[in-house]
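input
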Amino acid sequence: WKSAADGLRVNLRKASFHNKDAAGEASGNWHALSEGPGEIDVDARLTRGSGDAVWRYMPLAVGKGVRDWLRGAIIGGKASDTTLKLRGDLRQFPFRDGKTGIFEVRGKFRDANLRYAGLWPDINDIEGELLFAGARMLITGKTGRMFGVALREVRAEIADIEQAEELLTVTGKVAGPTADFLRFIEASPVGERIDHFTEEMKAEGNGELDLKLSLPLRRMTNAKVDGSYRFDGNRLTVDSDLPPLAEVSGALRFSADHLEARGIRGTLLGLPLTVDVRTAGDGNVQVNAAGEVSIGTLRRQFPHPVFDHLAGSAKWTGSVRVRKKSAEVKLTSNLIGLSSSLPEPFNKPATDALAFSFERKPPPDTTTRAGTRVGARDTAARPATAQDMLDISLGRALRFQLVRRHDVNPPVITRGLFAIGDVSASLPERNLMVAVNLPRINADFWRGLLVRQANGGDQKESVLPAPPTVQFDLRTADLTLLDKNFHEVRINGSRPEGTSSTRFDLKSRELTGNFEWNSAGNGKLSGRIAQFSIPETVATPAILQAKASEVIDRIPALDITVDQLSLKNRSLGTVRIAAENRDGYWNTRIDAKNDDGALEATGRWRPSPTQPDTRVDFKLNAKSIEKLLARIGHPDAVRRGSADLAGNLSWNGSPFIVDYPSLNGSLKLDASNGQFIKLEPGVGRLLGILSLQSLPRRITLDFRDIFSEGFAFDSIGGQFAVARGVMDTKDLQIQGPSAKVLMSGSVNLGTETQNLKVRVQPAVGESLAVGAMIANPVAGAVVWAAQKLFKDPLDQAFAFEYAVTGSWVDPKVEKLGQTPQKAGGEAK
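output
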């Protein structure tokens, strides 16, 4: 340095420096002026530096606000190739016009995080350049990432660092997943100002964010935001209770306190819709949508059998209002254009209107005041819990309301109402109420839909959380169940919370009883029925044939007692059914008895989807055949008599439909002291075969007096072998006072046909002996003794054989011939 006439001069030929923040060198000169801090000409260069220390080396002439921002904005990173140029009269610093001097700090940095504003998401791994030129500061990011997505064209700029209110402008573009854009909105002050509307949204697809922030460094609360996000072909889930939107395209504009999108287009369930989004002045977000629903599209996406009974399409409108992190949703439609062939009250032609509404809203009793819940049973103030209510209605046909608590995961149902038909019930204070009141209910139809869905649909967990205690009340004048009609029906009961048991009472004109259903495992139904009058079936033969092919994969355990079972006003007595699922089989026992007979049966069924099989062992004791047959609908088939029938049968399939082609087993029959009565054609079926009344119908001679008006028997005995639905016998014998009948052959149970040989041996010898005794006692005694000694030769002499073939109703009888006595005593 030296002192000269024009003032002090300092010449810095070279200076090197280093510390923990940086290392570098500088050179230049300075000389004093008559006024001011003097004139300078300095060049400096950093060979290494820490990005987060840049703020320390800014000239003090740079305002404190800028230095403080740099201190908090650049986190970590490394600086390199940083240079300083300072030339000119320092009274003109920072040389705003660029003519009176130069002030330039230019440097590169990498691997830094840029925290441009404390409440906004950071830009990570940024590589860029810092520039101070005159009164301007500019940070340019060449590369960087936000939520893992690459950024481009990032700029942070202060146009005039000398202003009292330094204004930082941040701009940038981001191209990447829409899900990350939603994260950006949620993490920014916009998320708070729109009440976190986007927090629960889910998105698939990409878009491009264009962002501009105006940030007064000394008044960050006055920050301004101008952003837009463009997307195309996205998939967006706005709310968990609504189906996702597909092929969503449009642009969303937002500011610090406003969000808006007009004419967003997409598809809902495969059909087009339009969506508008805007925020109100209070920060609430309003989403309005309109579209159309098509049954054909629903059927393809949700293959539920209920859609087989619906057709057409209908327009709908909807809205979502987000307020205080609670989304109120409403969808409405008049369903014009949609037709339904479902049972009443859900059937309608396409031209009729039927108001449909879906709402999610606050429950009616959760109005809060000073942080307490109004409407609670207890008088003490309690903090309000996060709740909502689903409210679905379909005209006057259906109401479905559920109140859910959201302070646990998954949500818990606290109360609800499910009402169908003319029901006056309202949402209860607690529990879930199910109320149904319809003129007619076809339970078989709805059960069929559920069975088809269970067999053909995916086994997915229910989206509804477990309900609390369930109470139900079902009323109908006409109930169709298991192909039978019940009248004046009322079912009411409940299932307590935390249990698997449902208790209910059933009252109707045909049945009265109380029951308990336990849903654990395959389920168990227990109950006691005071009286059960079996209704007649309402199914047509075609329907019954179709049901025979239904696949049944399980039956619950049973413990049922019927005190009084009746059919067509005829008492059948008491019945006890006990069944359990054990070792892969459904094992059951049936005990039925009345004053005229008793049935004991045990069985098992293997519910295999490929090889189901059923086996039944039974024993029937009829104290009075006449009265027992009268109880089951054949009062004029047999007089007097008693019988025992025992056997075992097995077939492929369920226990409710006999598969005759696979039917196998054996039977044994013993009967005594009865008389067949003349039967109408087709009545009694197998019993008609034993009565032999077809013989005199087809033959003008022979045994008309024996069989035509009813064949009396002293005993009937025989065994039967059943193979593939055909019942064979070799030794069926009917012994009567007027004739002895021997049967052999087969009966096809599936086709109801027969191929039998019948030998009829009349008791003429006995009659002759008695007549001879009356005329001549000695001769009569000789005839009687000869009959017994030579085994009824006269009876055998007059015996005939017949072939009985064809259907049971209209058999064909062919006389094979008389079998007279041969020499040597052999019968032909």
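quick obs: The mean pLDDT is 81.
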